[in-house]
Amino acid sequence: MRFHSGYAESRPEAQHLNDFAAYVDELSGGELKIDVFHAGSLGLSEPDMLRVLQRGNVDMALLYGEYYTRDAPALAAVYAQGAITEPGQHMEILPIIREIYEEGFSKWGIQTIGGIVSPVFSVGIHCKEPINSLAQLERKAIRVWSSQLVDAFDRLSISAEVIPQNDMYMALQTGVVDCAYYLSTVAETVSLHEVAEYEAYLHPWAAVPAMFGVSQQTWGRLSDDHRQVLIEAGEYMWEKTGDAAVDPVREQAARERRESLGVTILDDFSEEDVSRFQEAAMVAWQRIAERAGDEGTRNYATVTEYLQEIHD
Question: What CA–CA distance (Å, rounded) separates 122 from 203?
Fold first, then answer.
């Protein structure tokens, strides 16, 4: 079976996929083989992946809902930044997120069999000067990674611009932006400390899980035993990565590494600022969901109602 992944082989997700393939081989006694093609090496486009699986052009793929704004906009609006303020809340809402994705992918003839629970990293504001309040950011330009975040910061009178990760370093170095909204835990992997010496924690990452999708055409050709192997292996990876998703020790170790690289860790953004950001982010998220139509609105309502119960 050919398994498409858009992630580079250096990413932790790639190792999880290799572990999944090895476990499938073990469980099936060598009868079922998974060939993982990392970094899009099959030449397939992420935005086309739902159509690719629907046609059976590839057997399996790692599915990330936010890529499918063209074909399934409701899946791109299931979860958003600002949804959670404590890492543990992510694990509570995760079963609802998974259920929505499984239902959405099934409409494309895709069988989901577990997947990878992304780590709940810390999200911080990384700047060239000491900034740890929304008021200070009003006079600055900030790099973000999505239109939802542009809208959210705009509601706070803060100028934000979507800049790809690969261009972020240069944008900070040349003064295109003053700060970057980024995953602090992995900031050193993109040398962010070289161009942004100050950091302040804002909130935990609302990390969209990456699901294992199987083409229904491939699923239909498998024996019951081989289907069960895939289900068991997929659940194993879901539970294994889920157990490691929230890890205070990992976050503290990463913080200490950044400090050793010369980063000054400022006091966190205040509770008042976090509340203001979350309120703006939720409104921006709702707008995206509404643009996705009735299904997007339903998904937003389902997730936010459950989130409200968690917050209460």
Answer: 6
Closest CA to 270 of 179, 221, 203: 203
Taking residue 184's Cβ as centre, other Cβ atoms within 10 Å add up to: 24
Give pLDDT tens digits for 91-144: 999 999 999 999 999 999 999 999 999 999 999 999 999 999 999 999 999 999
Is the pLDDT score of 17 beyond 90?
yes
Residues 6 or more apart in contact with residue 10 via CB below 8 angstroms: none
130, 264 Cβ separation under 8 angstroms? yes
Question: Among 123, 65, 120, which Cα is nearest to 97's?
Answer: 65
Please list, residue by residue across 214-229, b when 16 or more beta carbons sit within 10 angstroms of its beta carbon and e when fewer do: bbbebbeebeeebbeb
Give pTM, 2 decimals.
Answer: 0.88
| Residues 225-236: tens digit of each pLDDT | 999 999 999 999
Q: How far is CA 217 from the centre of its chain?
A: 28
Interstrand relation of 159-162 and 141-144 (parallel, antiparallel or unpaired): parallel
CA pseudo-torsion sign 273, 274, 280, 284: positive
Residue of 126, 120, 89, 94 lying closest to 248 (CA atoms): 120
Burial of 284 (0-12, 13-18, 19+ CB in 10 A): buried
Condensed to tens digits (0 to 9), the pLDDT of residues 250-292 reads: 999 999 999 999 999 999 999 999 999 999 999 999 999 999 9
Distance CA 214, CA 138 (A): 46
Alpha-carbon distance 207 to 241, whole Å? 12
Q: Which two tokens stand for residue 189?
A: 């992997």
